Amino acid sequence: MLLTSPARWPLLTAATLIVACTAKSAGFDPPPQTVADVRMSPDSIALVLGDSAAFTAQGHQEDGSPIAVTLAWSATGGTVSASGRYHAGNTPGVYRIMASTTDLALADTSIVTITDSSSPPPPTAASVQVTPGGATLAIGAVAAFSAQGYQANGTPIAVPVVWNATGGSISTTGQYHAGASAGSYRVIASTTNHLLADTSIIAITDTTSPPPPPTVARVQVTPGSATMAMGAIAMLTAQGYQANGSPIAVPVVWSATGGTVSSGGQYQAGATAGAYRVVVSTTDLLLADTALITITDTATPPPPVGTVLLTEAFEDASVAGRGWYDNVNPAISTVEHHGGSGALQMAFAAGGTVAVKGGAVRHKFAATDRVYLRYWVKYSANWVGSGVNYHPHEFHFVTNLDNDYVGPSATHLTAYVEHVYQNGGIPSLSLTDASNIDVRKVNVDLTHQTEIRSANGCNGNGDRYPTDCYQLGTAWRNEKLWRASAPSFTPGPGPGYKNAWHQVEAYFQLNSIQGGVGVADGITQYWFDGQLVIDHHDVLLRTGQYPSMQFTQFLIAPYIGVGSPVAQTMWVDDLVIATGPVP
After folding, report:
1. Strand 361-368 with 370-379, pairing
2. Chain segment 333-345, per-residue pLDDT in tens
3. From the centroid of its chain, how far is CA 329?
4. How far apart are CA 544 and CA 238, in angstroms?
5. DSSP 21-37
6. How many CB atoms within 10 Å of residue 384?
7. How confident is the model at residue 7 (pLDDT cuts 50, 70, 90)?
8. Whole-angstrom Cα distance, residue 449 to residue 484?
9. What is the pLDDT of residue 195?
10. CA distances from 102 to 72, 107, 308 (A)
11. Alpha carbons 129 and 113: distance in angstroms, whole number
């Protein structure tokens, strides 16, 4: 998956899935890497006198990917080492730790609160709030503002503030006098140490001049979403609105993926099932809105009805008695569950690579050349995945050619079912067969020379899908990746909301072998809430060297190689494994 490889797992032990990932090239020279920002972790911490804590800082490029950077550390209220370990001093208070690039062009700051453990700390303000939060005033008008401090538990607390304003003047008591120019301005109240602040937005109107002509503040496309068959036609419309909500005519331009759209908003679905978008923009391209289009496959028959191989409702943690192994003490939630009274819980601590009690949960099943997975999943409201454009790994299938505790990144074949979160969770399927790589012929196309090679990268491409080949330490890894065209798990309430339960289905079918040669007729499919969003029927999963290969093992092993950006949780329930879709 370029930087989303399923092949980033060193060997899994019986209790813990130990994995690693690295970025790698895609077969061309990358542009020079530059640092866009520096981020510290944690961003705040409370310590007692004399205590210490470790801080880390990471550089990032413009696209959010990490990059190594040399940093200088500085601190108040204590000392900080060159490696980021902070030692609190002997004076309680609120202090700062800063990591900056050596040229001081980029930096980030963490807040340290030092308390005296021998006595309870005095109440401190955690936030300050300005009232009113906004106001519309005529030129020269006067308005009074107030500021209130609040403790972390929400209790009000008196706090001295200083006032600043734009577009006018403000007294030390919060009385604002609007200036002589209409526009949008700010009133800001900050604590005297400048650590806390709040802002009120001021709109100054010119009562002496005629009002400006109405302008469009937003554009909206209707309908906001649609499900269509291949080749079907739908009519979409666009409406402009002023800032006060009044409709206003606005010229627009249309664009679309997955099909075509006319200048009048008529969309015709294309011939490939999946999730797509129709975008309407104002002609100056400053405003836009998007309709989500789901095109369903009416031409390709679904996989045949399957035979159930495994069901699991995760009602309790006694999974060993139900055939699960490796991690036999997973976390079970009785609060979050789809059906019954329990669900598997995988909770990441901030910075954690694996979930709490989250080692690989494995189960064997009857050997089959095709496998269907169905499960229900829910993510916490703050779920952001890995924060980069690869990981987390989630669900895996491996075959009879590898042992019962194999690490899924170094196998004869591993099939991955997961998503990558990029302002929404994008469904992802991928394959790796790193154990099959002919390391003597890395990046040599062996597809028409021999079947003793890998099918998913490093030794050529036996189907039309791009592959990836990279090194993890001294070992070679590979990958073949498919992603849906748009996020299915959405960041906010509504269809697809990540903090609601959703049904995911996936299907893998090994390709056939004819005359000792692998034929690109394998299948990879992914459904989100019943909608087919990934669908490929011409896949080479294996070469002719393994005619006896069959799927036999399933793993649930969520993993974030770069460390979880926040404390976040996923829940899994009502899982089914079969040889094809089942009721």
Report:
1. unpaired
2. 999 999 999 999 9
3. 27
4. 54
5. ------SSPPPPP---E
6. 17
7. very low
8. 33
9. 86
10. 6, 10, 60
11. 21
Give the integer Cα–Cα distance in Å for 278 and 361: 41
Q: What is d(CA 544, CA 447) in angstroms, rounded to the nearest whole number?
A: 11
Rounded distance, CA 147 to CA 159, Å? 8
CA distance 182 to 164: 18
The whole-angstrom separation of Cα 5 and Cα 7 is 5
Report d(CA 304, CA 294) in Å as an integer: 23
469-476 mean pLDDT: 94
Q: Per-residue b/e over 74-104, b at no fewer than 16 CB within 10 Å? A: ebebbebeeebebebbeebebbebbbbbeee
Q: Are 274 and 534 in contact (CB under 8 A)?
A: yes
Strand segments (E) across 400-548: 414-421, 425-432, 467-472, 475-483, 502-509, 513-514, 517-518, 522-528, 531-539
Task: Work out the number of other CB atoms within 10 angstroms of the CB of residue 352.
Answer: 16
- What's the CA gap between 11 and 15, in Å, rounded? 11
Return the number of other C-beta atoms located less than 10 Å from residue 550's C-beta. 16
Query: Which residue is associated with the tokens 């910075």?
Result: 351
8-state DSSP, 512: P
Residue 302's alpha-carbon distances to 129, 512, 530, 531, in angstroms, are: 57, 18, 12, 12
How far from chain centre, in Å, is Cα 146?
39
Tokens coding 526: 């992914």
pLDDT of residue 387: 93
Handedness of CA 202, 203, 208, 209 (dihedral sign): positive
- 8 Å CB contact between 78 and 108: no
Per-residue pLDDT at 117 exceeds 80: no
CA distances from 244 to 186, 215, 218, 240, 287 (A): 20, 10, 10, 12, 16
Q: pLDDT per residue over 211-227, tens digit each?
A: 778 899 999 999 988 88
User: What does the mean pLDDT of the chain come to?
Assistant: 90
Contact partners, residue 547, CB within 8 Å, separation at least 6: 513, 516
Tell me the mean pLDDT in the region 119-134. Answer: 84
Pick the closest to residue 506 from 375, 332, 352, 334 (CA basis): 375
Q: Which letter does DSSP use for residue 213 in this model? A: P
353-410 pLDDT, tens digit each: 999 988 889 999 999 999 999 999 999 999 999 999 999 999 999 999 999 999 999 9
Helix, strand, coil percentages in the chain from 3-state DSSP, rounded to 5: 0, 45, 50
Q: What residues contact residue 382 under an 8 Å CB cut-off, 6+ apart?
A: 566, 567, 568
CB atoms within 10 A of CB 281: 18
Distance CA 456, CA 542 (A): 8
